[in-house]
């Protein structure tokens, strides 16, 4: 089995590969339905748990519910996360999660609070770290804009091209237009930083280095500044 650090890197790469579909807006509201505070962006829980199960295996991690409280408007839960390493169960910390009670549905609020606490515990292992670094907002908004219909542009008469060669346009927003093609690797521009995405990137590290990429230990990703 691969070292835990490499497994966590693989989990994060899987989450990034899902793109916009794995990201959700997180809004807090009061009793009247009015928004409280800023909108946050995080990974949808099912995508996180599916990715963890695929890489670590469902038999190699578990959680314990240590405390649960029900208040007037929200449920709060505290859980401890355990990961099996070399056959031994190690506690990787505890966290509290919360979820608002909507229309008196306490059961859903309890479930949501536990899920929130588990995801926060996983952040101690840097699983889903993009969410806590504020890197998901642009990915979510860009994906939303791509799905919105665009207005029809008026047709214009093309300029004369007599005896002039025609060259295909270059998509400046596509980082792959100026990057090498590496099997199994895609590239994403995140706020001026090009991120390499794919499985087993360490096997392709020489190709990535040759293309100017550097390994970032904090983000656990190969990246370089966009031109």
Walk me through the structure.
The chain is an alpha+beta fold. The protein has two domains: 129 residues, Enolase-like, domain 1 (2-Layer Sandwich); 53 residues, no CATH class. Helices cover 29% and strands 30% of the residues. The strands form three sheets. A four-stranded antiparallel β-sheet has the order 6-7-9-8. Strands 3-4-5 form a three-stranded antiparallel β-sheet. Helix 1 packs across helix 2. The protein is flat. The two termini are 38 Å apart.
How many distinct beta strands? 9
Here the CATH topology of the largest domain equals Enolase-like, domain 1
- Strand percent estimate: 25-35%
- CATH class bucket of the largest domain: Alpha Beta
The tally of helices reads 6
Tertiary shape: flat
The oligomerization state is single chain
Which strand order spans the largest sheet, edge to edge or round the barrel?
6-7-9-8
Q: Give the N-to-C terminal Cα separation.
A: 38 Å
Mean pLDDT: 81
Order of helices and strands: HEEHEEEHHHEEHEE
For the biggest sheet, the summary is: 4 strands, antiparallel
Calculate Rg over CA atoms.
22 Å
**Low-confidence sequence ranges:** 160-177
CATH homologous superfamily designation of the largest domain: DNA repair protein Rad52/59/22
- The assigned CATH architecture of the largest domain is 2-Layer Sandwich
